[in-house]
Description:
There is one protein chain. This protein folds into 4 domains: 1-200, Response regulator (Rossmann fold), CATH 3.40.50; 203-321, GAF domain (Beta-Lactamase), CATH 3.30.450.40; 341-427, Helix Hairpins (Orthogonal Bundle), CATH 1.10.287; 434-582, Histidine kinase-like ATPase, C-terminal domain (Heat Shock Protein 90, 2-Layer Sandwich). The chain is elongated, with a radius of gyration of 33 Å. The protein is of the alpha+beta class and 582 residues long. Residues 1-68 and 542-547 have low confidence and may be disordered. The chain starts with 8 loop residues before the first strand and ends with a strand. The chain has 14 helices and 22 strands. The protein has a 5-stranded parallel β-sheet, sandwiched between helices. The protein has a 5-stranded antiparallel β-sheet with strand order 12-11-15-14-13, sandwiched between helices. Helix 2 runs parallel beside helix 3, helix 6 (204-218) packs antiparallel against helix 9 (323-393) and helix 12 (474-490) packs antiparallel against helix 14.
Amino acid sequence: MGFSLFQVLFLQTSAWNGRGLSRTFSFGFTGFTALLPMQSPSVPGNGLMRKFILYNGFIELAWIVFMTKKARILVVDDEEQISEIICAALSSDGYVLSRAFSGEQGVNAVRKEKFDLVIMDIQMPGMDGISALGEIKKIDPETEAIIITAYGSMSTAIQSMRKGAFDYLHKPFNIAELRTVVERALEKKKFNDITKAIFSTIRSEELLSIIIDSVTRILKADESLLVLINKTGKPYIAVSYGLDGQAREKSRLEVCTRILHRLPVDDINAITLVDEPFNDAKFTDIALIGEIKFAMILPLMEGNRLTGLININRKRPNAYFTENDTQRAKVFGSLVNLALRNANLYRQLQETQSQLIQAEKMSVLGQMSGGLAHEINNPISGILGLTQLLLEKEERSTQSYKDLKDIEKAVFRCKKIITSLLSFARQDESLMSPINVNEPLEETLTLCAHQMELQRITIVRKSAEGLPMINADFQQLMQVFLNLLTNARDAMPDGGTITISTRPAQVGDKEGVEITIADTGVGIPTNMLTRVFDPFFTTKPVGRGTGLGLSVCLGIINKHSGTITAQSEPGKGSAFTLIIPT
């Protein structure tokens, strides 16, 4: 993931206060301008800077949390008086300044320390400023540079720009001009850091935190929330700022869900401004909650598909959103859409890789199961045959007869387990055929019955009569049932009850079957329930779950033109309901 596709075109700046904190600045990718904050609002007076490390070919996110430091500037000039004037002028703005008196000293200083900006003369004894700039850029390409000279020409300016200089000043220059150029150079440096952070972040949770921190500061929001739509079409709050408590989050989610249905169909990309919510019938419910005075709705799109929205709210009187705010939001929305798409593509890659690994595991399991069945079925057949011969010779009333019947029953159970294992591990291409849904359920229960017994879990079956046959893949349904039963078992570490219900259902104008698997376990928190089908989302401890199981289940049921939904209440249990048409 290089950043050459997102080259920065620095356009305009606002004031830098010299203490590592800038309000906003403008930049461009290709064809748009954007504004970003310099500091996370979550740490008052200081910021969270993110560092991203390229590790084994993948971008690995590492959070480096530190107090926002003052910008470090290196002044390189062989004229001591000029160097002193520059340092005196800039130190009053709060920068940390160092000096070097030759090109060689400047290069060595950059090797030893990290500088945000180098201000350097061109004409110096030994290594000149242009050559020194080239060496500095090799050591640290992210260091910005301003070139100053009394003898420069246009060709010299062009040469310095080609070496990576941010700007070029002629001596004599006034202090105000110097300060302006320094502010712009440092703001560009900070902007580049944040841009790289956003486009390097491929873990959705961290990316969403960066997004909400940024939009809150850019648009001076009292509260903000990012709402996404999950695979089942339900909105959920992915991340928020300024909302304290689940009750408030729930109320905001209800409002945003209604807003999603009110966005203008003819221009779904349009930003909606609600300057006076009470004056707009569509948005009075915004004002009624939390005394919101002004609201902005920023839709998030993937192509022509609405994927969510960002809601920015202000509660202060007269805190109107300006035209400048709207432009900022448009650009930020474009940036967010690109970043989310980037993270989504990476997540899809991970999901595909995991599915390939799972397919390979299933292939190996199938081969092992085939060998296992061959090796075990032969002696089991012998045991069964001998047992049945002995049964013919024994009187039904004897203890020996009862013992032999127990042996026969155990042998039949072994054969059934082997058959179920072969059914589960079979790697045929998807074979859709008319089946009774109770059959794959029974096969799956046979596989996990012993585990349930060990964990003191009772299985309750409620099967209605007259179930219609459904057109389904037997092995894939076993995979779905096994995943749901395993999740239910894991939710009840101290034992409990799993209730499995099957009954006829109506799916549009077709008949179908409804299957419900309910447990009496710990349940799923309300704020997580809408995300359970998202790839890599799991409520299990680290190392216990990949977060792919329910996502795979959703894919299988979708392939059967069915639906799967989840209901849960923390502390009381969860229920997953599948509806599959005939």
